[in-house]
Amino acid sequence: MRILSRWVMLLASIAALVFVVLWLNRVRLDYDSEGRYFDEEAMVVYDADAVLVYGSLALASSLVAVLLAFAIKRR
């Protein structure tokens, strides 16, 4: 059970890192008044609402990783 908890903690930590990187990339974009950013090179439109979603996922993943770290340490 302890090994499974460590694996889940590792996966949650990796997910948190990925979501933080995505969040940082999206926060830095120059959105227009409608909350959209058009990337001409990739021909993709990014929406400003994704910033909130990626930030929430980063916090949730970090919280899971920290709680599992405390649970593993207590055992």
Please tell me about this protein's structure.
- It is a single chain.
- With 75 residues, the protein is mostly helical.
- It has one domain (2-74).
- 69% of the residues lie in helices and 11% in strands.
- The chain has helices at residues 2-27, 49-74; strands at 36-39, 44-47.
- A two-stranded antiparallel ribbon has the order 1-2.
- α1 runs antiparallel to α2 (49-74).
List segments where confidence is low: pLDDT < 50 over at least 5 consecutive residues.
none
Largest sheet: 2 strands, antiparallel
Let me know the number of strands.
Answer: 2
Shape: elongated
State which percent range the strand residues make up. Answer: 5-15%
- Termini gap: 11 Å
Mean pLDDT over all positions:
94
How many domains in all?
Answer: 1
Report Rg.
16 Å
Continuous helix count: 2
Topology:
Blueprint: H1 2-27, E1 36-39, E2 44-47, H2 49-74
Antiparallel strand pairs: 1-2
Helix pairs in contact: 1-2
Summarize the structure.
Helix content is 69%, strand content 11%. By secondary structure, it is mainly alpha-helical.
Identify the notable features of this structure and list them briefly.
75 residues, mainly alpha, two-stranded antiparallel sheet, 2 helices, 11% strand, elongated
